[in-house]
Amino acid sequence: MPVPPAAPGTPGARDLAGGAAGDSAGGSAGDSTGDTVEPGRVTRPEPRPGPHKVVVLVVDGIYPFELGIPQHVLGSADGRYEVVTAGVDGKPVRTVSDLTVTPGHGPEVLAEADTVIIPGYAIPRTSAAAPDPKALDALSGVRPGTRLVSICSGAFLLAGTGLLDGRRATTHWALGDRFRKLFPRVELDTDVLFVDHGDVLTSAGAASGFDVCLHLLRQDHGTEVAGQAARFCVMPPYRDGGQAQYIERPLPPAGATGTGPTRDWALRRLELPLSLEQLAAHAAMSTRTFARRFKEETGLSPGRWLTSQRLRWARHLLESSDLPVERVAHEVGFATATSLRRHLAAEAGVAPSAYRRTFRAPDPAAGGGIAPDPAADGSVSVRRPRRASGP
User: Can you tell me the distance from the alpha carbon of 330 to that of 9, in angstroms, rounded to the nearest whole number?
Assistant: First the structure.
């Protein structure tokens, strides 16, 4: 197989999935002035009979948590996916924890995969952080056009194949400097949860593995199936940026004491211009006491909480209805469509129309899925929740 140019410090990048980005479809992945062709949507292999086969590649130093995410999420989708594990040489693999795992298959099963997922693994703080040549060699057996997905530091191995050269990608933000030194040809974005190029997807830290796997479910089978899987995993079907990471305790049930009944009351009236005074009056508290109690219980101010709930309902309407954006804004309580666009762009990084094209369920009558809304590089990304400071 031809070998694409390797990033400096990369031991033998391989030609995977029909060549480096843009080659197989006649485009230039490194041309930032034009649209990037999404080769995975052109060269995707014919589906095999039976469930979609997902092979999780198990490499030395793997994190057990990330290793279990694909089975936990995709394996809960009522038999739509067959999730198996593969080692690079058929031997037991040591993890970062005090245990060793034995993958169910050797590298030969990668040739049967419809999707290959590379979970995160320990990245040393030395020049030896370049991907393991044995792992790169195992990936060379992947069929052209197979969808490749990395979780967290798995992006290092994916970048080692050369498939990310000239393309936007992400990994754990704390690994950003080391990643850029090893792979200067990759446009690293550490402010997103995941980036989707169709044929290649990269995701950020450990928990973003759930986000990207739910995204695969939405793309493959629509929002209803993804929502069912999310409920099974006891997590939201998508994360709102800048919210969950600030909540230090579980939200009290809506029917509990404190501000719970008022939150429940407000959720049934999101289309109305609710003020702090109205919320406090419903809770029979002063505005100062209500605001303090509200933040103690939810981790958010009343105004920010209202905005996040309106965005959740707006996303639902964008995914499940054909209502015009102006009507969606009115239904969820934003004063104007411009206000909805501004808030959705701040939280998810996309406009309402782009969100609808990307995340609404595929139309079975049309016979397929939905291509992501093209960004400057043809990719789709969902923003990472903002961190206050430190790791």
Answer: 54
